[in-house]
Design a protein that fits this description.
The chain is mostly helical. The chain has helices at residues 62-77, 82-96, 124-128, 130-138, 149-152, 161-169, 175-179, 181-191; strands at residues 8-10, 41-42.
Length: 200
């Protein structure tokens, strides 16, 4: 990870700091949320080894909650709203259970969206850099050559969420995105009102 990816991004944002290099950790129990006044976003982001434990919205750990909030923050920071956030959240649930995976777990893929450097989504570090990965998915990341949401479907709000997520991702299992739409909408309803748009 380059030094540019390790610097705090904002001290006004209202979220807990993660720790780089926790790929060997098996729990986030030791990471206690700070009070709202002390919370901030950094790109010293929380990582986990891959698991196939599934996703249960009412059993999310701190890692998953903070990553869901950050997706919402970045989406709204680009003046995109509920539909874009729902698509991004449903995709990240399917691809990573809302964990920011550090190692390559499927060919050269990694990060929240399991983006592949070999497919134009950015470098090894960039697909694991949460803000850059979200921006690449949305199609607002200048570092990525692959078409994101805004390029693939400028009228995404009129699309079925699962279909437009598949259009961006090109998954071998396209049916999985639609299965997580209800969870994604619940996350938006649960957290959007308390998350400041992230613009840094």
């Amino acid at each position: 990870m380059t030094s540019a990816l390790n610097t705090p991004l904002s001290r006004r944002s209202l979220f807990v700091t993660g720790v780089l290099g926790l790929a060997t950790a098996t729990t986030a129990a030791t990471i206690a949320p700070a009070s709202a006044a002390e919370q901030e976003w950094t790109e010293e982001f929380m990582t986990r080894p891959e698991t196939r434990e599934g996703f249960a919205i009412d059993a999310m750990d701190d890692w998953q909650v903070e990553n869901a909030k950050f997706v919402i923050a970045v989406v709204t920071g680009h003046d995109l709203g509920e539909e874009a956030a729902t698509i991004a959240l449903a995709t990240a649930i399917v691809e990573s259970w809302l964990y920011n995976y550090e190692p390559a777990v499927d060919a050269d893929s990694g990060g929240l969206f399991q983006q592949r450097p070999s497919m134009g989504w950015g470098s090894y570090d960039e697909v694991r850099h949460k803000k850059l990965a979200i921006e690449a998915f949305l199609g607002v990341g200048e570092h990525a050559a692959a078409p994101g949401l805004l390029q693939a479907a400028p009228d995404y709000a009129s699309w079925d969420v699962g279909a437009v997520a598949q259009l961006v991702q090109g998954s071998a299992h396209p049916e999985r995105y639609g299965q997580q739409v209800a969870a994604a909408r619940t996350l938006w309803d649960r957290y959007a009102d308390d998350v400041e748009p992230y613009t840094d």
